[in-house]
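thought: fold this chain, then report.
action: predict
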Amino acid sequence: MSDLSSIEKLKLEKILGMGSGYVLDFSNRTFQEFITESVNINIYDEKYNYYSGSKANRLRAFWQQEPNLLTGQLLEKLLEYWQVQKLIEQQFISAVEQSLFDECQTIAKRLKGDFIVKDSSDSHLSNESSSLLQTKLLSEFDRFASLTSLEDRRARGFLLEDLLTRIFALHAIQVQKSFKRNEGGEQIDGAFKLDGWYYLVECKWTQKLSDIRQLDSLYGKVNRSGRQTLGLFLSINGWSKNVCPLLRQNSEKSIILMDGYDLRCVLVEHNRISLKDLLLQKLEHLNFEGEPFYSAFQLLQSTQ
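observation:
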């Protein structure tokens, strides 16, 4: 039998939607086929006929009777199915859902014996966990970047906001998720505080390059805020060539630019770029040189 704890079971049941006897969106037939394909077991064998015999109860019986390794393997496949289903149906994964998913993945890895503890120090474990999360976020960023259909591009904007929140959290910068203000008249994609200054964030992940009109929108939001407010305009695919010259001409130097290359560089571990350091360098070049865009490439060059 597996050694799943009561708390671990509670988390797994939540993400797998087992509250009403179901498991995700499986029918009886597809549930049987999926488990047979995943671990070569017939879940409708009499030994798994627990209480009502529902899909959820059969999965609970599986957890009760099968060893850690087999349980971990099946859970890993079910979590992969959950993630792919969200992607295909273009369903937004909230920060809460992502956190629960990550915890359930950790449970599956523990059952499979994937974790090898090399050092008992808390700092080492913390660094290892941070490294794993950074690698996962990089993989997720690259996967989102490969979405090219019209429907996918519409979903990417929402996915980007959630991904950005988790990247900032990884670098210990607290972000306020998207919100509306001025009686619902303004939509703010996100906000954060850094070294005493407040930043409003505008996110764009479109095939077309961002233009100055989209930055004018962010300027308006910043100008309607307090005096210690700046703007961060994040456009994954960059901006048109006239954007930077026009920003330099603006007397209100209150917006810094970030593109997809910047964001990806922060996630590539061997670059050793801190998101906070990159943002502060962007701010320094805006204040001292009037330049709205200082890239991660420039920062990498300066540290070599």
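thought: worth noting. The two ends are 54 Å apart (CA to CA).
final: tokens above.
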